[in-house]
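Researcher: We're teaching a course module on how sequence relates to structure. For the next exercise, students receive a sequence and then see the predicted structure as tokens, so they can try to spot secondary structure elements on their own. Here is the exercise chain.
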Amino acid sequence: MRRVAFTLKVKPDLIDEYRRRHADVWPEMLDALRETGWKNYSIFLQPDGTLLFYVETPDFKAALAGMAEKDVNRRWQEEMAPFFENLCGEQADQSFLPLEEVFHLD
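Model: And here is the predicted structure for the students to work with:
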């Protein structure tokens, strides 16, 4: 299992709405994430809008590719795109750049 972390930034004026949307993620989106190998997926939010995403998956590229094939992902990405800074015309999930892991306790 590979641990992957990456960051994005939510526009400061949309932080509260971003929180609200993630309190009620569509059930079919949750199912799609599970089906494509996303485990222990968590999103952490700093007050300035910086997000830290963490996921465990056997193959991160395959997990992303699996989600790219899902219609529910396309719809979710379209709805969430206005929340993020600096996407440069890409979907948020096409902008994920994994952080380098430099320490792990276990």
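Model: If you want an answer key for the exercise: Residues 4 and 55 are 5 Å apart (CA to CA). The first strand starts at residue 2 and ends at 9.
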